Amino acid sequence: MSRRNEVDDRGWHEPRTRRRRRQPGSRRGRQPASRRVHRSLGQRVAAWTSVALVSVLVAGALVAYVKYRSYWDSIRRVDVAGLIGKQPPKYNNAENILLIGSDTRVGANGRIGGSVGCNCSDTLMLLHISPDHHGVTVISIPRETMVPVLGCEASDGTPGQQADPNAVELINAALSGGGPACTWKTFDAVTDIHVDHFVELDFTGFQKVIDDLGGVTVCLPEPVDDRLSGLHLSAGRHHVFGREALAFWRTREDVGEGSDLQRIQRDQFLMAALVQGIVHGGLLHNPGKILNVLRDTTDAMTTDTGLDQDAMLQVAESLLGVTSTSVLFVTAPNIPYPQNDNDVVFQQPQADELFSAIAHDTTVPSAKKPSKKATAPPVVDAAPSEVKVDVRNGSGVQGVATQAGSELTSKGFDVVGTGDANNFNYTRSVVEYAAPSDMPAVDTLKTQVSDAEVVQNSSLTPGTVELIIGSSFSGLSHASTSPSSSPSSQPSVASLSSSDGGITANANICSDQAAFAGPNG
Question: Are strands 231-233 and 224-226 parallel, antiparallel or unpaired?
Answer without folding.
Answer: antiparallel
